[in-house]
Amino acid sequence: MLAATENLVVATGIVNIWQYDPAELAAEFHEIDAEFPGRLLLGIGIGHPEATSEYTKPLTKSREFMDGIAAAARPVPRERMVMAALGPKMLDLSFERTLGTHPYFTPVEHTRFARERLGSTALVAPELAVAIDEDPERARAAARKYSALYLGLVNYTSNLKRFGFDEADIANGGSDRLIDAVVPSGSVETAAAMARAHLDAGADHVCLQTVGVEGIPTAQWTALAQALGL
After folding, report:
1. pLDDT tens profile 58-77
2. By three-state DSSP, how is residue 99 classified?
3. Where are the domains of the chain?
4. Is the Cβ–Cβ distance between 81 and 42 less than 8 Å?
5. Are the CB atoms for 133 and 142 separated by under 8 Å?
6. pLDDT tens for each residue of 8-31
7. What is the DSSP string of 63-93?
8. How many angstroms separate the CA atoms of 41 and 47, rounded?
9. Could you say which DSSP state residue 104 is in?
10. Looking at residue 4, what DSSP letter applies?
11. What are the helix (H) ranges across the chain?
């Protein structure tokens, strides 16, 4: 992506800290940055206990990993990193050690909470999955299918429960209310409206991901750009 563009800033969303040595990650960052100066944002995250057998004490592990990056021969500058932070303490760490948070599968209320907790100077850049289809039933079905994996991961479901959802919302593929809040579906205007809602809640940037589409979703990207006036 860096080689194919001239100005695009690319973020790694997200490097799983269980799969990397922090010093090696710092070295790889600087290797890429030397070729594409200033265009790489290093996104770091703790992953999920369902995917990592040694998963334990996520906050402690994250602090240790950031200490390892700071102790590397060539540390990664704070302003060139961001963390996939969901809960309050991880959000605090994201601002303490990086630019801020790059969360995923979160409702607008989480964006508002992150902005209020981190203040005006932190980066809040949620990623928003959208299912664009003029047939509303087919669109929501695509959104629900896509959400199935994430509704089986405790980090995401625990976070959703902090913002007004319960076990009934999470069960059986997710309630319509939950699905519509985290993976809006239907027209491109619906998707654009949710992106604007995140911006209005305090997001600096919303990363849009179209789901339920095979190949490169050029048509959806173009339609979203037009709807958002980009």
Report:
1. 899 999 999 999 999 999 99
2. coil
3. 1-102, 127-201+209-230
4. yes
5. yes
6. 999 999 999 999 999 999 999 999
7. HHHHHHHHTSSSPPPGGGEEE---SHHHHHH
8. 18
9. B
10. T
11. 22-35, 58-70, 88-97, 108-118, 136-147, 154-162, 167-170, 176-182, 188-200, 218-227
